Amino acid sequence: MLTTIKAWQDWYFHFWDRLNVLRAGILGANDGIISVSGIVLGAVGADLSNTTLFISGISGMLAGACSMAGGEYVSVSAQKDVQLSRWDHLIKIIQQWSK
Predict the structure, then answer these.
(1) pTM for this model (two decimals)
(2) Cα–Cα distance between 99 and 95 in angstroms, integer?
(3) Which pLDDT band holds residue 26 (cuts at 50, 70, 90)?
(4) Secondary structure of the chain in the HEC alphabet?
């Protein structure tokens, strides 16, 4: 019985990991587009040169990408830790019932 639960657990985590990657990609892309657009439009409003406009857009894109990557890593790691803890608790309960 525990081997069946373990096999299902492996499939379950693999499914949610793939779904988290998709979710993170979509939310990250939306956030990045809005952030970089705000920076570029602000630079355009300040009537800056084309080079300054380009550099501010690239800088904003890189800073946003690093920020989103770090935040998403921490978020997904914490979520995985919680899920593993819940599964371990469930396995302990099943082991107690099977005795």
Answers:
(1) 0.55
(2) 7
(3) confident
(4) CHHHHHHHHHHHHHHHHHHHHHHHHHHHHHHHHHHHHHHHHHHHHCCCCHHHHHHHHHHHHHHHHHHHHHHHHHHHHHHHHHHHHHHHHHHHHHHHHHC
